[in-house]
Every structure is written in C-alpha cells, then in structure tokens.
Amino acid sequence: MAQAPAAAPQVNLTQSAGQPVGQSIGTDVAEGATPAADASIATTATPAFPQAAPTPGIGAPDGRLGLQDQVTELGQRAAGFHDGPLLLMCLIISLFVLVLLGYTMFKFRRGANPTPSHTSHNTLLEVVWTLVPVLVLVAIAIPSIRLLAAQYSPPPADLTVKVVGNQWYWTYQYPDNGGFEIVSNMLKEQGDAKPGERFRTDADGPPLLATDERLVIPAGKVVKFLITSNDVIHSFAVPAFWTKMDANPGRINQDWVKVDRPGVYFGQCSELCGARHGYMPIAVEVLPQAQFDAWLASKGGTPKGAATAPAAAAPAPADPAAIEQPALTQPVTAQN
Ligand SMILES: [Cu+2]
Predict the structure, then answer these.
(1) Distance from residue 186's CA to the centre of ligand 1 (Å)
(2) How far is CA 246 from CA 71, 273, 282, in A?
C-alpha cells in the first residue's frame, strides 16, 4: 500500500497495459478482468442459426462418374481442361498406341515372317517419336501453368478465415469478424450417438461428411483461407471448390475461393493424419451476404464492414486497465 503514491499510476498504467504481466494479474483481480475476457472470447454453444439443407448432387459425391460440379471459376476452368482437352488427348494417344500394337502384332507375326528383319535404326522415326511427345507435353503444360498461376494469384480478399486441422476435427477462426472460433466435429449416426446426443439427419448432409458446425462463408466474395495445423499434417480439401491444401503444423498455407452459388459443400481431410483421419469431414455453407451477417451475429461476431469497431475496440484495453487501477499496486511490485 505504501508503494501506491498518487502520482505514480499514470506511468505504470502504460507500462502494465502493454505487458502480459498486467493481464495475468488482471485475472487475479476477479471482478475487473473477467468481463473483458468474456467479451473477447466468444464461445460456440448450440447453433442458434438454422443450417441450410444440402442440394442432392451438389457439393457431395452422388454416384456419378467424374468430377463434382464445380462452383468456383477456377474449378470450372480446371474441370473443363480436364474433361475436355486432357481426356481427349488421353483417348487419342491410347487408341493410337492400341492400333499400332495390334497392327505390329499382326503384320510382323512369326507365321508371316519366317526370316525376321534385322532393322535396328530409323532416323526419321526416332526424331518423330521424340518430338511428338515433347509437343504433347508442351500443349499440356501451357494451359496447366496458366491455371496454376491463377490459383496462386489471389485477388484482394474480402474475408479471411483461419482453418486449423486438429486430430481429428477442424476449427475455423474469423479474425476479420472479432476473432471468434468455430469447432467443427463430425456428426454421429443415430445408432452411434449417446442418448440425448445430436446425431446426423439428411438435412445435415451425407454420412461421414455432415458436421455439427459448418465453415460459413459469404457468396460472391473472395475468401482467403489461412491453413495450418495444431498437431500433424492434415489437408483441407473441398472438391466442388477445386481446393486442396496441406495443413502443416508451424506453417501457414494460403488458399482462396470465390463461390457465387449459395449452398452446402462437403470435403474431407485428405492427408493421412492418424486413427480417425476418415472422420474429420469439412462442411462449408455459402450464404448470401445478408444471411452471412446474421450468422455472424448469432456467433457473436461483427461484420467486416464494422472493421472500425475492432479499431475502436483497440484503445478499449486501456479502459479495463483504468478500471483495474486499484490493482496497480501489484504490477508495480511485480515489475520491481
Ligand atoms: Cu486430418
């Protein structure tokens, strides 16, 4: 008490506010600090916001052969390249080799050639069978590299979501919207759920893909994903977005999507990550902006348009510190 002269607190205020010491001591002072802590850490309790039901055949496998319908422009370009020129080239080359093989087997069969030819070199043929594959590869490489470049040149992001892989579930953080976090676990089947526990229904999605909480993003907006992991390597993959990016511990990878069509899209962890690797699905719900804002509000988040609010909130820590002023006697002794 003797160390709390009237003049000192102004100086100590700035010191303790900038240092973690002030926070740890703030938690000791029960009344002053806990409301501020509660406000900054939003909890994700029961989903108050109704989840949309998925559209059959969109965003999940439905038994059809081939790629899922793509809902991003990049995905449409890539799928178009795969289903068009690439498959056509595969078909032509396969047929050509098959016909050539058949012709050779027939024409040069033993019965028709009792004395085999001793031909071993043909310069023209060798040049052709070297050059033609090179040209084929170049024809594939040019559009491929263009596509890759587009994937790795994201437009300015409207929203950033941090995607974190965990053994064995995903968490999604919204740093632009107050920093709240969504924890997403696979929904169990009715027979596997404990009494009273929520189980999967068809409105949630297909078995092994439906989750209790979804990653929710706005439609028509560029969403940047910062992808990392808390433990081992996972992979964040949503086939309908043409998205697959490894989640490495201690490292942040970036990916981005712009989905114009609202809906529900499913994916899975795509890097073998342990015993329950097959049970950490990804469910993404794309909502029109107004509904997305309502969802944000239901989670205690703030729209990014209110980016002035976090900026205004930045000086706010000074206010709790001012309220905790009586506790400043303790930081002073702690620092000394
Ligand atoms: Cu995983």
Answers:
(1) 12
(2) 21, 11, 14
Q: 4 CA to middle of ligand 1, Å?
A: 53
pLDDT for res 306: 66
Q: Residue 180 C-alpha to ligand 1 middle, in angstroms?
A: 22
How far apart are the CA of 187 and the centre of ligand 1, in A?
16
250-288 b/e (C-beta count within 10 Å ≥ 16 → b)? eeebebbbbbeebbbbbbbbbbebeeebeebbbbbbbbe
Ligand 1 mean position to 238 CA, how many Å? 13
How many angstroms separate the CA atoms of 223 and 208, rounded?
25
Question: What confidence score (pLDDT) does residue 264 get?
Answer: 96
pTM recorded for the entire structure:
0.71
Rounded CA-CA distance 330/245 in Å is 48
Domain spans, the chain? 13-42+313-335
- Per the prediction, the chain carries an average pLDDT of 81
Instruction: Please identify every stretch of the chain with a pLDDT value under 70, giving residue numbers as ranges.
Output: 1-48, 305-336
Helices 30-40, 20-28: axis angle to 10 degrees equals 120
Q: What is the DSSP string of 8-50?
A: THHHHHHHHHTSHHHHHHHHHSHHHHHHHHHHHS----S--SP
